[in-house]
Amino acid sequence: MSTKVIRSMSDFSRFRVDIDVRCYCGHKNTLPYWPVLCRFIDKGWPKNLHSALDHFRCTKCGSCAQWIGPLPR
Ligand SMILES: [Zn+2]
User: Fold this and answer.
1) Is residue 6 part of a domain?
2) Is the overall model pTM greater than 0.85, yes or no?
């Protein structure tokens, strides 16, 4: 088990871990960190985790993410 603490979207690329996204409806998705980070940079979105939640949309119910975190390897 690692002690990596993810506080911003940049940390996913710093630690080279993919992003585990969970929705309120129970749907889960895994996203590669690099294209996601590029999108945040392109759009100029704030990269802290709390506001990042709003930028993930569930492909099932359309809600924003409930939780995002590092995918355990
Ligand atoms: Zn959902």
Assistant:
1) no
2) yes
Q: Which domain holds residue 29?
A: 13-70
Q: What is the dihedral of CA 68, 6, 13, 69, to 10 degrees?
A: -20
Å from CA of 22 to ligand 1 middle: 8
Does residue 23 sit within a domain? yes
The CA distance from 47 to 2, in Å, is 22
Ligand 1 centre distance from Cα of residue 39 (Å):
21
Is 3 a domain residue?
no
Give domain status of residue 59, yes or no.
yes
pLDDT in tens, 37-65: 999 999 999 999 999 999 999 999 999 99
Cα of 6 from ligand 1 centre, angstroms: 23
Question: Which tokens sit at 55?
Answer: 């930028």
Please give the DSSP secondary-structure letter assigned to residue 61: T
